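Appendix B, record 7
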Amino acid sequence: MGNCCGGHNLTNANFQIASYDLIYQDPSKFDFALLNKKALQIQKFFRGYEVRKKMKKQQTKQLAQTSDESFIYQYRSNQKENVNNKQNVLKFNIDGQQHIPVFNVKEVNISSKYSDKIKIVLDKLDPFNFDQDSQFAEYPFSKPLLIGDVIYEGQWNNCQKHGRGRQFWIDGSYYEGYWFNNCQHGKGRLLLAQGDIYEGDWKNDKVHGFGTYIHQNGAKYQGYWENDKQHGKGKEFWPDGATFEGDYKNGQKNGFGILREADGSVYEGEFQENRFEGHGDYMIVGGKRYVGQYKNNKMHGKGTFYWKDGKKYEGDYVNGVKQGYGVLFYPDGRIFKGYWQNGKQHGIGIYIGKSKVEKEGEWIDGKRVRWIRKGGEFTNIES
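C-alpha cells (predicted):
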C-alpha cells in the first residue's frame, strides 16, 4: 500500500462503494444479477506501480551512501557548519555509522498548506497511539527534511527511515506511525488526500495484519489484510446501514458471510469472488425467502422458495428461474408436481386439487393445454 523510500502513488487510490438499487420483482422472475453491484470493493490497489518504481529509484539515488573522499569532506564540512549554527542535522552512532542523510535533502519548515488541512482531519480522530517507541529508542530524530517530493520528520537508521516518523506528500496525503528500513512497518495511520483513512498494521510498506479503512463518505472496512488486500475475517459498514461480516480471500468475499441490507433483507451463506455462490439462505424483506443453491448471484440448483402467504416451491432453478422438476404447494392445500421452463409450468405434470384427487395433464408456457388422465371433480388450474 505504501512505497519504500516515500514513493506513494496516492492519486490512484480507488475505493468503490456499490449502490443498492435491487428491485424485488415477481418471485417467478426473481433475478439476483443486480446483487453483484452490492460488493464493496475496498480491495482495489492503492498503488500505481510505475510511479512506485520511478520514485523508489529516485529516492534510492538521493539517499545513497558513499565512502569516497567527497563524502568525508561533505561530512566534515557539515559538522563544522552545524557546530557553528548550533544545529546537528547529521548524527552518528557510537561506531561512526551515518544515520541521517545529508545528500539531496533540505531541512524545512512544514508549510501550512500541508499541516492545516491535516490538522482539521486529525482533530476529529483520537490521537495516534505510538506504542512501539521502546523498540527504536537508540535511533536519532531529524527535523523535517525535504526529500524529493515528500517531507519526512522522524527517526533514522543508516540513512533509512526507521522508527517513529511522519511523512507529508505533495498531494496533501499524510502518514504517521512506524517505519522499518525505509518502509512503513508496524502500526501506522495514513490519511489520503481525498479524505480516506487507513489505520492499522503495515508490513514492508503494505497494509498487512489488522486494520480499519474508512472512506470519506463513511463506508468502512474493519478486519484483516494481507499484501494490501482484505484477507481473513472482516466487517464492512455502509452509510445506508447495510453491513457485511464474513470471510475474505485475496481482496474479495470468499467463504461464509452474512450480508444485512439497508431494507432489512439478510443473506447468510457462501460467497465466491464477491458473489453469492454455493448454499445460502436469503430472507427478503416483505416475507419472501429462498434457501438453496446459488451460482453467480442467482438461484441455481436445488432450492426452496417461500412466499408470505404460505405458498412454497421446492425444486430446480436455472439462472434464477424455475427450470426442471419442481413441486408448488398452494396455501389452500393444492399441489402441482411437474416440469418447469423459464419460471412457468411446461411439460407433463400432476395437479392435486382440494379434493385430493390427482389429475395428470400437459402444460405449455404456464397454461394447461390438455388432461391426460382425470379423476374426480374438474378443477381449474392456476398457471
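Remarks on this record: The chain is about 10% helix and 45% strand. Confidence is low (pLDDT under 50) at residues 1-96, 376-383.
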